[in-house]
Amino acid sequence: MNLEEKVKSKVSGREYAKEILSLIEIDDEKVEFREAFWMQVYDSIPFPQGSHLPPGVEMKISDPRPTMTDEEAYSFEKYTLDFGTYAHHTYANCPTEYLLWLNGKGEQLAAYLRSRIGQERQEEE
Predict the structure, then answer these.
(1) Are residues 82 and 50 in the same domain?
(2) Is 90 helix (H, G, I), strand (E, B) or coil?
């Protein structure tokens, strides 16, 4: 890709981003929503973190979810999964890719349980 094509691609990308952002409204008062929104956008980028940014520039998004201390993490790694592909394995012995996939499913499940349909199903039981 030559320089002119790169510039045209960047301009096109920026125009597309402006168009998408014009379709949403982010209330500056809702910090949690804004952080979650941008974290999801950033997490959805399909290439390695930072590779789309100019050299020396890092994009940092604060993750609102709580983290564990080292002691808590070491203790957590000893827990055994009792379901799925890695049933009977400790978290420490599961591939990171699997844990990331599992984490994504957990977030989907949590979102489902908060949905209207999920709430209705919980009330039925």
Answers:
(1) no
(2) strand
Tally of structural domains, the chain:
2
What's the rounded Cα separation, in Å, for the pair 51 and 17? Answer: 18
pLDDT grade for 50, boundaries at 50, 70 and 90: very low
Indicate the DSSP class of residue 80: B
Q: What is the pLDDT of residues 75-114, one digit of tens each?
A: 989 999 998 889 999 999 998 888 878 877 777 777 777 7
Whether residues 1 and 59 share a domain: the answer is yes
Q: Around 67, how many Cα atoms within 13 Å sit in the side-chain half-sphere?
A: 5
pTM for this prediction: 0.42
Q: Phi and psi for 80 in degrees, rounded to 5?
A: -105, 135
Tokens at residue 23, please?
């379709």
Residues 47 and 1 in one domain: yes
